[in-house]
Structures
1.
Amino acid sequence: MDQLNQVAVYKKANVYFDGKVTSRTVMLPDGSKATLGIMLPGTYTFSTDQKERMDIQAGELEYRLENGDWIKIEGEGSFDIAAHSSFEVKVVSVVDYYCTYG
């Protein structure tokens, strides 16, 4: 899916890690939430409250789910994160991502 239709986008950015990771919250027509964002090169650890799916649109990174091995994505790819867990990313080049929840 390259385009989101009939959505509401929150204007205020979600800013993390001193501005190296930013996103905008998108409310989808079915009431679910997603975020669209950019990650600059660096290493980051995130925690989850609910299940998440990270869809990488462009860029290069390695990710590691809790107690897992490092997996590389170049260009497009995706991965799922369990609720109440954490994951790490090592961003090599600017990453464009779309994250859905639940």
2.
Amino acid sequence: MNAAQKQPTELIRIEQLNKQYKMGGEIVHALSDISLTINHGDLLAIIGPSGSGKSTLMNVIGCLDGPTTGSYWLDGEEVSRLRESRLAEIRNRKIGFIFQNFNLLNKLTALENVELPLIYRGVPAKQRKEDALAALAKVGLDSRSGHRPNELSGGQQQRVAIARALAGNPPILLADEPTGALDTKTGVEVMRLIKELNAQGHTIILITHDLSIAEQAGRVVRIQDGRISEEGGGRREHRASV
């Protein structure tokens, strides 16, 4: 039995999660009684309009923010009450972030940008370079490793951002509007790459307001006024507790 077969099916479990903020003396219920399970190998889209709570849910899933009440289990560990130092370690090792605006450093080459999370992880220089080149090769950009972001197209920059998220092989890729800053043709190419990575076994969570993007996922979770509901996706149907 190989390592992949030994992995538990469940990767994320969120139970009765609530997130509240104080704004102008009022309490805002950003997330209300969210329960959701995400399995290894899922391609899940969370779709909702501006103000629906999808960014708050993304921040909780990405360990950038914690819930007010409820629990969040990530890869077998209850993370909702951990200290920031431990959360930072989890973000670095278990979550690869893909941002709408790429968030690449212009002074660094593609290779150096991809190496960044590995530097924070303390990976030795030789291994770091090998891993970063392997990640760039996975997105078809190893030949552009010495180019800086301003020497790359928008689609190539997003591929570098995806390679950076892949570096270190985290179990989760969390993509926030990954095609939002791209033209239609390039967006199609990036989504094709994302689906290919999912087919290779990567668990991917897409945050989007675009129905055409969400419909390409295996699962679709809609969020409105901080509450979720789930419908079938493009490849297979699962149900979330709501």
